[in-house]
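On clarity, I found the account of how folds are encoded harder to follow than it need be. An entry of this sort, consisting of the sequence and the corresponding C-alpha coordinates, reads as follows:
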Amino acid sequence: MRRRTFLASAAAGAAQTRTARRPNILLITADDLGLCLSCYGETRIKTPHLDSLAGSGVRFRTAYVTQASCSPSRSSMFTGLYPHGTGQYGLANTGLALHDNLHQATIPAVLKKAGYRTGIIGKLHVEPEDTFPFDFLHKNSANTRKVRDVATLAGGFLSAKSEDPFFLMVNYSDPHAFRLPDNPREWNFPPQVDGLPENPYPPGPTAVFDFQQIDTPEQRVRVAGYYNAIQRLDTGIGMLMDTLRKSGKEQETVILFVGDHGPPFARGKTTTYESGLRVPYMVRWPGLSKPAVSDAMVSTVDLAPTIFDAAGVTSPVRMHGRSLRPVLANSKAEWRRYLAGEFHFHGATPFYPRRAIRDDRYKLIHNLLAGRNKPSTGIDGDKAYPISRDSRYDGTPVRAAFDTFANPPEFELYDLRGDPVEFRNLAGQPALKSTEDRMKQALLDWRKESSDPFLDPAMIEKMARRTVQA
Protein backbone atom coordinates (compact mmCIF):
# COMPACT_ATOMS: atom_id res chain seq x y z
CA MET A 1 0.00 0.00 0.00
CA ARG A 2 1.31 3.43 -0.88
CA ARG A 3 2.12 5.77 1.97
CA ARG A 4 -0.39 8.48 2.87
CA THR A 5 -3.33 6.39 1.71
CA PHE A 6 -5.22 7.84 4.66
CA LEU A 7 -3.46 11.10 5.51
CA ALA A 8 -3.03 14.32 3.60
CA SER A 9 -2.11 17.90 4.33
CA ALA A 10 -4.65 20.68 4.13
CA ALA A 11 -1.99 22.81 2.47
CA ALA A 12 -2.87 21.28 -0.91
CA GLY A 13 -5.07 23.75 -2.67
CA ALA A 14 -4.80 26.43 0.00
CA ALA A 15 -2.57 28.61 -2.15
CA GLN A 16 -5.37 28.81 -4.69
CA THR A 17 -7.57 30.67 -2.19
CA ARG A 18 -5.05 33.08 -0.72
CA THR A 19 -5.34 35.60 -3.52
CA ALA A 20 -9.15 35.54 -3.61
CA ARG A 21 -11.55 37.05 -1.12
CA ARG A 22 -11.73 34.71 1.82
CA PRO A 23 -15.19 33.18 2.26
CA ASN A 24 -17.25 33.15 5.41
CA ILE A 25 -17.61 29.72 6.96
CA LEU A 26 -20.69 28.30 8.70
CA LEU A 27 -20.24 24.93 10.41
CA ILE A 28 -23.46 23.34 11.68
CA THR A 29 -23.66 20.24 13.88
CA ALA A 30 -26.59 18.28 15.22
CA ASP A 31 -26.20 16.26 18.42
CA ASP A 32 -26.71 12.50 17.98
CA LEU A 33 -28.05 12.76 14.42
CA GLY A 34 -27.80 9.57 12.39
CA LEU A 35 -28.97 8.99 8.82
CA CYS A 36 -32.58 9.84 9.65
CA LEU A 37 -33.17 12.48 6.97
CA SER A 38 -35.39 12.01 3.95
CA CYS A 39 -32.47 12.91 1.65
CA TYR A 40 -30.76 9.80 3.08
CA GLY A 41 -33.78 7.60 2.45
CA GLU A 42 -35.73 8.14 5.68
CA THR A 43 -39.47 7.56 5.15
CA ARG A 44 -40.93 8.01 8.65
CA ILE A 45 -40.63 11.80 8.59
CA LYS A 46 -39.84 14.56 6.12
CA THR A 47 -36.87 16.90 6.48
CA PRO A 48 -37.41 19.46 3.69
CA HIS A 49 -34.99 22.12 4.92
CA LEU A 50 -32.05 19.76 5.33
CA ASP A 51 -32.98 18.12 2.04
CA SER A 52 -32.84 21.56 0.40
CA LEU A 53 -29.41 22.25 1.90
CA ALA A 54 -28.19 18.86 0.72
CA GLY A 55 -29.55 19.48 -2.75
CA SER A 56 -27.72 22.80 -3.05
CA GLY A 57 -24.29 21.30 -2.44
CA VAL A 58 -22.54 17.94 -2.24
CA ARG A 59 -24.18 15.26 -0.12
CA PHE A 60 -21.90 12.40 0.84
CA ARG A 61 -23.53 8.98 0.96
CA THR A 62 -20.98 7.44 3.32
CA ALA A 63 -19.52 9.64 6.06
CA TYR A 64 -18.06 8.76 9.45
CA VAL A 65 -17.43 10.62 12.64
CA THR A 66 -14.13 9.66 14.24
CA GLN A 67 -15.68 8.45 17.50
CA ALA A 68 -19.36 8.06 18.38
CA SER A 69 -19.12 10.17 21.53
CA CYS A 70 -19.57 13.92 21.66
CA SER A 71 -16.29 15.36 22.95
CA PRO A 72 -13.92 13.04 21.07
CA SER A 73 -15.94 13.54 17.89
CA ARG A 74 -15.85 17.32 18.22
CA SER A 75 -12.15 17.32 19.05
CA SER A 76 -11.57 15.84 15.59
CA MET A 77 -13.77 18.44 13.93
CA PHE A 78 -11.76 21.23 15.54
CA THR A 79 -8.29 19.82 14.80
CA GLY A 80 -8.38 17.45 11.81
CA LEU A 81 -7.00 14.66 14.01
CA TYR A 82 -8.49 11.39 15.20
CA PRO A 83 -9.22 11.29 18.95
CA HIS A 84 -6.20 9.06 19.45
CA GLY A 85 -4.21 12.08 18.29
CA THR A 86 -6.10 14.81 20.15
CA GLY A 87 -6.01 13.42 23.70
CA GLN A 88 -9.77 13.98 24.07
CA TYR A 89 -10.41 10.24 24.33
CA GLY A 90 -13.71 10.64 26.22
CA LEU A 91 -16.16 13.28 27.38
CA ALA A 92 -14.87 16.66 28.50
CA ASN A 93 -16.28 16.26 32.01
CA THR A 94 -14.06 13.23 32.71
CA GLY A 95 -10.84 15.24 32.95
CA LEU A 96 -9.67 14.37 29.45
CA ALA A 97 -8.57 17.24 27.20
CA LEU A 98 -6.72 18.28 24.05
CA HIS A 99 -2.97 17.89 24.10
CA ASP A 100 -1.22 21.16 24.90
CA ASN A 101 0.30 21.50 21.43
CA LEU A 102 -3.19 21.59 19.88
CA HIS A 103 -4.47 24.65 21.76
CA GLN A 104 -3.32 26.89 18.89
CA ALA A 105 -4.29 24.37 16.20
CA THR A 106 -8.09 24.45 16.54
CA ILE A 107 -10.30 26.01 13.87
CA PRO A 108 -11.13 29.17 15.86
CA ALA A 109 -7.49 29.65 16.95
CA VAL A 110 -6.10 29.32 13.44
CA LEU A 111 -8.82 31.41 11.79
CA LYS A 112 -8.77 34.16 14.41
CA LYS A 113 -5.03 34.54 13.92
CA ALA A 114 -5.73 34.87 10.19
CA GLY A 115 -8.21 37.71 10.75
CA TYR A 116 -11.50 35.87 10.97
CA ARG A 117 -14.28 36.94 13.35
CA THR A 118 -15.22 33.77 15.28
CA GLY A 119 -18.44 32.71 16.98
CA ILE A 120 -20.16 29.69 18.50
CA ILE A 121 -23.77 29.02 19.43
CA GLY A 122 -24.44 25.94 21.53
CA LYS A 123 -22.11 23.36 22.98
CA LEU A 124 -18.36 23.33 22.64
CA HIS A 125 -17.64 20.39 25.00
CA VAL A 126 -13.92 20.03 24.24
CA GLU A 127 -11.37 20.87 26.90
CA PRO A 128 -9.73 23.18 27.76
CA GLU A 129 -12.66 25.38 26.69
CA ASP A 130 -10.85 28.57 27.69
CA THR A 131 -8.27 27.99 24.93
CA PHE A 132 -10.88 28.43 22.18
CA PRO A 133 -10.77 32.12 21.13
CA PHE A 134 -14.37 32.84 20.14
CA ASP A 135 -15.32 36.51 19.80
CA PHE A 136 -19.03 35.68 20.07
CA LEU A 137 -19.79 33.01 22.66
CA HIS A 138 -23.18 31.52 23.42
CA LYS A 139 -22.22 27.98 24.35
CA ASN A 140 -24.05 27.66 27.66
CA SER A 141 -26.56 30.51 27.58
CA ALA A 142 -28.36 29.20 24.49
CA ASN A 143 -30.91 26.38 24.64
CA THR A 144 -30.46 25.26 21.06
CA ARG A 145 -33.61 23.14 21.16
CA LYS A 146 -35.36 26.49 21.02
CA VAL A 147 -34.54 26.85 17.37
CA ARG A 148 -36.15 30.26 16.96
CA ASP A 149 -33.70 31.61 19.54
CA VAL A 150 -30.79 30.07 17.62
CA ALA A 151 -31.82 31.89 14.46
CA THR A 152 -32.07 35.15 16.42
CA LEU A 153 -28.61 34.71 17.93
CA ALA A 154 -27.17 33.87 14.53
CA GLY A 155 -28.82 36.95 13.09
CA GLY A 156 -27.11 39.09 15.70
CA PHE A 157 -23.72 37.66 14.79
CA LEU A 158 -24.30 37.96 11.05
CA SER A 159 -25.51 41.55 11.24
CA ALA A 160 -22.40 42.86 13.01
CA LYS A 161 -20.66 45.57 10.99
CA SER A 162 -17.27 44.11 10.10
CA GLU A 163 -15.10 43.83 7.01
CA ASP A 164 -13.58 40.63 8.35
CA PRO A 165 -14.79 37.24 7.13
CA PHE A 166 -16.47 35.11 9.79
CA PHE A 167 -16.40 31.59 11.14
CA LEU A 168 -19.62 30.66 12.95
CA MET A 169 -20.27 27.26 14.49
CA VAL A 170 -23.91 26.47 15.30
CA ASN A 171 -24.51 23.38 17.44
CA TYR A 172 -28.06 22.13 17.79
CA SER A 173 -28.90 19.98 20.83
CA ASP A 174 -31.52 18.04 18.90
CA PRO A 175 -31.91 15.14 18.52
CA HIS A 176 -29.97 14.35 21.74
CA ALA A 177 -32.09 13.07 24.63
CA PHE A 178 -32.18 15.37 27.64
CA ARG A 179 -33.03 15.35 31.33
CA LEU A 180 -35.38 17.73 33.09
CA PRO A 181 -34.11 19.55 36.19
CA ASP A 182 -36.81 18.02 38.40
CA ASN A 183 -35.93 14.47 37.29
CA PRO A 184 -32.22 14.32 36.37
CA ARG A 185 -32.16 10.52 36.13
CA GLU A 186 -34.78 10.25 33.39
CA TRP A 187 -33.84 10.86 29.76
CA ASN A 188 -36.55 12.41 27.60
CA PHE A 189 -37.58 13.02 24.02
CA PRO A 190 -40.61 15.29 24.47
CA PRO A 191 -42.99 15.36 21.48
CA GLN A 192 -42.66 19.16 21.23
CA VAL A 193 -40.50 22.06 22.44
CA ASP A 194 -41.97 25.56 21.99
CA GLY A 195 -44.69 24.07 19.82
CA LEU A 196 -42.25 22.32 17.46
CA PRO A 197 -42.60 20.15 15.54
CA GLU A 198 -46.07 21.30 14.61
CA ASN A 199 -47.15 17.76 13.69
CA PRO A 200 -45.39 15.25 15.95
CA TYR A 201 -44.67 11.79 14.61
CA PRO A 202 -46.72 9.36 16.74
CA PRO A 203 -45.47 6.14 18.37
CA GLY A 204 -46.53 3.15 16.32
CA PRO A 205 -45.35 -0.02 14.60
CA THR A 206 -43.01 1.92 12.30
CA ALA A 207 -41.14 3.47 15.25
CA VAL A 208 -38.50 0.72 15.33
CA PHE A 209 -34.85 1.09 14.32
CA ASP A 210 -33.53 -1.45 11.83
CA PHE A 211 -30.23 -1.65 13.72
CA GLN A 212 -32.08 -2.74 16.89
CA GLN A 213 -35.33 -4.43 15.77
CA ILE A 214 -36.60 -4.09 19.34
CA ASP A 215 -40.32 -3.37 19.50
CA THR A 216 -42.14 -2.49 22.73
CA PRO A 217 -44.61 0.30 23.53
CA GLU A 218 -41.95 2.12 25.54
CA GLN A 219 -39.36 1.81 22.77
CA ARG A 220 -41.85 3.12 20.21
CA VAL A 221 -42.35 6.24 22.34
CA ARG A 222 -38.61 6.76 22.60
CA VAL A 223 -37.98 6.31 18.87
CA ALA A 224 -40.91 8.57 17.96
CA GLY A 225 -39.54 11.25 20.30
CA TYR A 226 -36.17 11.02 18.57
CA TYR A 227 -37.82 11.60 15.21
CA ASN A 228 -39.73 14.57 16.56
CA ALA A 229 -36.46 16.10 17.70
CA ILE A 230 -35.17 15.71 14.13
CA GLN A 231 -38.25 17.43 12.76
CA ARG A 232 -37.64 20.32 15.17
CA LEU A 233 -34.00 20.45 14.06
CA ASP A 234 -35.09 20.58 10.44
CA THR A 235 -37.38 23.53 11.14
CA GLY A 236 -34.48 25.26 12.87
CA ILE A 237 -32.20 24.71 9.89
CA GLY A 238 -34.80 26.38 7.70
CA MET A 239 -34.85 29.38 10.05
CA LEU A 240 -31.06 29.56 10.13
CA MET A 241 -30.77 29.43 6.34
CA ASP A 242 -33.41 32.15 6.04
CA THR A 243 -31.41 34.28 8.48
CA LEU A 244 -28.26 33.76 6.41
CA ARG A 245 -30.09 34.75 3.20
CA LYS A 246 -31.49 37.90 4.80
CA SER A 247 -27.98 38.88 5.89
CA GLY A 248 -26.93 39.07 2.24
CA LYS A 249 -23.93 36.81 2.92
CA GLU A 250 -25.24 33.47 1.67
CA GLN A 251 -23.34 33.47 -1.62
CA GLU A 252 -20.01 34.15 0.06
CA THR A 253 -20.40 31.57 2.82
CA VAL A 254 -19.15 27.98 2.80
CA ILE A 255 -21.69 25.81 4.67
CA LEU A 256 -20.81 22.47 6.23
CA PHE A 257 -23.39 20.32 8.03
CA VAL A 258 -22.78 17.08 9.99
CA GLY A 259 -24.18 15.01 12.82
CA ASP A 260 -21.71 14.58 15.68
CA HIS A 261 -22.47 10.82 15.80
CA GLY A 262 -25.36 8.39 15.57
CA PRO A 263 -28.53 7.96 17.67
CA PRO A 264 -28.43 7.57 21.49
CA PHE A 265 -29.70 4.00 21.28
CA ALA A 266 -27.92 0.72 22.04
CA ARG A 267 -25.82 -0.41 19.05
CA GLY A 268 -25.62 3.23 17.96
CA LYS A 269 -23.90 5.95 19.96
CA THR A 270 -20.67 4.82 21.77
CA THR A 271 -20.12 1.91 19.36
CA THR A 272 -18.17 1.48 16.15
CA TYR A 273 -21.15 0.06 14.31
CA GLU A 274 -22.44 1.94 11.28
CA SER A 275 -25.36 3.23 13.34
CA GLY A 276 -22.87 4.94 15.64
CA LEU A 277 -20.27 6.20 13.18
CA ARG A 278 -22.28 7.12 10.10
CA VAL A 279 -23.80 10.59 9.91
CA PRO A 280 -25.32 12.94 7.35
CA TYR A 281 -22.64 15.12 5.80
CA MET A 282 -23.16 17.91 3.28
CA VAL A 283 -21.04 20.80 2.05
CA ARG A 284 -21.89 23.82 -0.08
CA TRP A 285 -18.90 25.86 -1.26
CA PRO A 286 -20.01 28.71 -3.56
CA GLY A 287 -17.89 28.91 -6.69
CA LEU A 288 -16.51 25.39 -6.20
CA SER A 289 -19.17 22.80 -5.45
CA LYS A 290 -22.10 21.91 -7.68
CA PRO A 291 -25.21 19.99 -6.54
CA ALA A 292 -24.20 16.34 -6.46
CA VAL A 293 -24.33 13.13 -4.47
CA SER A 294 -20.87 11.71 -3.89
CA ASP A 295 -19.74 8.16 -3.19
CA ALA A 296 -16.46 9.42 -1.71
CA MET A 297 -16.04 8.06 1.81
CA VAL A 298 -15.45 11.11 3.99
CA SER A 299 -14.91 11.78 7.66
CA THR A 300 -15.37 14.60 10.11
CA VAL A 301 -11.59 14.51 10.39
CA ASP A 302 -11.75 16.22 6.97
CA LEU A 303 -13.68 19.25 8.26
CA ALA A 304 -10.76 21.29 9.61
CA PRO A 305 -8.57 20.67 6.53
CA THR A 306 -11.46 21.75 4.28
CA ILE A 307 -12.15 24.88 6.33
CA PHE A 308 -8.47 25.82 6.41
CA ASP A 309 -8.25 25.27 2.64
CA ALA A 310 -11.25 27.54 2.05
CA ALA A 311 -9.75 30.23 4.28
CA GLY A 312 -6.30 29.97 2.68
CA VAL A 313 -4.54 29.02 5.89
CA THR A 314 -2.63 26.00 7.14
CA SER A 315 -2.64 24.14 10.42
CA PRO A 316 0.43 24.29 12.66
CA VAL A 317 0.20 20.50 13.02
CA ARG A 318 0.13 17.63 10.53
CA MET A 319 -3.50 16.67 10.24
CA HIS A 320 -4.92 13.19 9.69
CA GLY A 321 -7.73 14.45 7.46
CA ARG A 322 -7.64 16.04 4.05
CA SER A 323 -9.39 18.90 2.30
CA LEU A 324 -12.57 17.89 0.49
CA ARG A 325 -11.80 20.33 -2.33
CA PRO A 326 -11.20 17.60 -4.97
CA VAL A 327 -14.50 15.80 -4.37
CA LEU A 328 -16.43 19.05 -3.99
CA ALA A 329 -15.20 20.21 -7.37
CA ASN A 330 -15.74 16.78 -8.92
CA SER A 331 -17.91 14.26 -7.10
CA LYS A 332 -16.26 11.47 -9.14
CA ALA A 333 -12.72 12.42 -8.12
CA GLU A 334 -10.50 9.66 -6.73
CA TRP A 335 -10.62 9.54 -2.95
CA ARG A 336 -9.70 7.22 -0.08
CA ARG A 337 -10.33 3.49 -0.33
CA TYR A 338 -10.85 2.92 3.40
CA LEU A 339 -12.72 4.82 6.09
CA ALA A 340 -11.81 4.42 9.77
CA GLY A 341 -13.29 5.13 13.19
CA GLU A 342 -12.53 4.31 16.81
CA PHE A 343 -13.67 4.35 20.42
CA HIS A 344 -12.06 4.75 23.85
CA PHE A 345 -14.30 6.22 26.57
CA HIS A 346 -17.66 7.87 26.79
CA GLY A 347 -17.90 8.66 30.49
CA ALA A 348 -15.12 7.89 32.94
CA THR A 349 -15.86 4.16 32.61
CA PRO A 350 -15.70 1.68 31.03
CA PHE A 351 -12.54 1.94 28.96
CA TYR A 352 -13.24 -0.17 25.89
CA PRO A 353 -10.85 0.73 23.06
CA ARG A 354 -11.94 -0.24 19.56
CA ARG A 355 -10.72 0.36 16.03
CA ALA A 356 -12.86 -0.04 12.92
CA ILE A 357 -12.32 0.23 9.20
CA ARG A 358 -14.49 -0.27 6.14
CA ASP A 359 -14.26 -0.21 2.38
CA ASP A 360 -17.16 -0.05 -0.06
CA ARG A 361 -18.41 -3.46 1.11
CA TYR A 362 -16.71 -4.94 4.18
CA LYS A 363 -16.26 -3.67 7.72
CA LEU A 364 -13.76 -4.88 10.33
CA ILE A 365 -13.90 -4.03 14.03
CA HIS A 366 -11.00 -4.78 16.38
CA ASN A 367 -11.98 -4.85 20.06
CA LEU A 368 -8.64 -4.30 21.74
CA LEU A 369 -9.68 -5.54 25.20
CA ALA A 370 -12.02 -8.35 24.16
CA GLY A 371 -12.22 -11.04 26.82
CA ARG A 372 -10.87 -8.68 29.47
CA ASN A 373 -13.32 -5.76 29.62
CA LYS A 374 -16.84 -5.33 28.32
CA PRO A 375 -18.47 -2.26 26.80
CA SER A 376 -21.41 -0.45 28.31
CA THR A 377 -24.77 -1.82 27.17
CA GLY A 378 -26.80 1.30 27.92
CA ILE A 379 -26.76 4.82 26.60
CA ASP A 380 -28.89 7.80 27.63
CA GLY A 381 -31.66 5.70 29.12
CA ASP A 382 -32.15 3.30 26.22
CA LYS A 383 -33.42 -0.10 27.41
CA ALA A 384 -32.99 -2.10 24.21
CA TYR A 385 -30.31 -4.40 25.62
CA PRO A 386 -32.30 -5.68 28.64
CA ILE A 387 -35.35 -6.01 26.40
CA SER A 388 -33.27 -8.17 24.03
CA ARG A 389 -32.96 -10.68 26.91
CA ASP A 390 -36.73 -11.41 26.73
CA SER A 391 -37.59 -14.97 25.82
CA ARG A 392 -39.33 -13.88 22.62
CA TYR A 393 -35.88 -13.10 21.20
CA ASP A 394 -34.44 -16.55 22.02
CA GLY A 395 -32.69 -17.98 18.97
CA THR A 396 -33.24 -14.88 16.84
CA PRO A 397 -30.72 -12.71 14.94
CA VAL A 398 -31.69 -9.89 17.30
CA ARG A 399 -30.51 -11.85 20.33
CA ALA A 400 -27.30 -12.85 18.55
CA ALA A 401 -26.56 -9.24 17.57
CA PHE A 402 -27.10 -7.96 21.10
CA ASP A 403 -25.01 -10.81 22.52
CA THR A 404 -22.12 -9.66 20.33
CA PHE A 405 -22.79 -6.05 21.28
CA ALA A 406 -22.54 -6.84 24.99
CA ASN A 407 -19.58 -9.21 24.86
CA PRO A 408 -17.68 -8.68 21.61
CA PRO A 409 -15.02 -11.06 20.30
CA GLU A 410 -11.65 -9.63 19.35
CA PHE A 411 -12.64 -9.23 15.70
CA GLU A 412 -15.93 -8.59 13.98
CA LEU A 413 -16.31 -8.71 10.20
CA TYR A 414 -19.45 -7.64 8.36
CA ASP A 415 -20.61 -7.67 4.76
CA LEU A 416 -22.35 -4.31 4.60
CA ARG A 417 -24.06 -5.07 1.30
CA GLY A 418 -25.86 -8.12 2.58
CA ASP A 419 -26.01 -7.09 6.24
CA PRO A 420 -26.07 -3.28 6.57
CA VAL A 421 -27.18 -3.44 10.23
CA GLU A 422 -24.24 -5.71 11.19
CA PHE A 423 -26.17 -8.58 12.72
CA ARG A 424 -23.98 -11.43 11.36
CA ASN A 425 -20.34 -11.51 12.40
CA LEU A 426 -18.36 -13.27 9.67
CA ALA A 427 -14.93 -13.10 11.31
CA GLY A 428 -13.07 -16.39 11.19
CA GLN A 429 -14.98 -17.84 8.24
CA PRO A 430 -12.51 -19.64 5.92
CA ALA A 431 -14.24 -18.36 2.77
CA LEU A 432 -13.52 -14.77 3.83
CA LYS A 433 -9.99 -15.24 5.13
CA SER A 434 -8.37 -13.18 2.38
CA THR A 435 -10.87 -10.37 2.92
CA GLU A 436 -10.36 -10.44 6.67
CA ASP A 437 -6.57 -10.41 6.27
CA ARG A 438 -6.77 -7.48 3.85
CA MET A 439 -8.97 -5.49 6.22
CA LYS A 440 -6.67 -6.24 9.17
CA GLN A 441 -3.70 -4.98 7.18
CA ALA A 442 -5.58 -1.84 6.13
CA LEU A 443 -6.50 -1.19 9.76
CA LEU A 444 -2.89 -1.63 10.88
CA ASP A 445 -1.67 0.66 8.09
CA TRP A 446 -4.10 3.38 9.16
CA ARG A 447 -3.09 3.08 12.82
CA LYS A 448 0.60 3.34 11.94
CA GLU A 449 0.16 6.24 9.53
CA SER A 450 -1.90 8.19 12.08
CA SER A 451 0.58 7.38 14.90
CA ASP A 452 -1.99 5.64 17.07
CA PRO A 453 -0.48 5.61 20.60
CA PHE A 454 -2.69 2.64 21.50
CA LEU A 455 -0.52 0.43 19.32
CA ASP A 456 1.71 0.42 22.40
CA PRO A 457 0.32 -2.02 25.01
CA ALA A 458 1.70 0.27 27.72
CA MET A 459 -0.70 3.02 26.60
CA ILE A 460 -3.64 0.66 26.86
CA GLU A 461 -2.54 -0.35 30.37
CA LYS A 462 -2.14 3.30 31.36
CA MET A 463 -5.72 4.11 30.31
CA ALA A 464 -7.01 0.92 31.90
CA ARG A 465 -5.45 1.96 35.24
CA ARG A 466 -7.02 5.39 34.88
CA THR A 467 -10.40 3.68 34.61
CA VAL A 468 -9.80 1.72 37.80
CA GLN A 469 -8.79 4.90 39.65
CA ALA A 470 -11.88 6.72 38.39
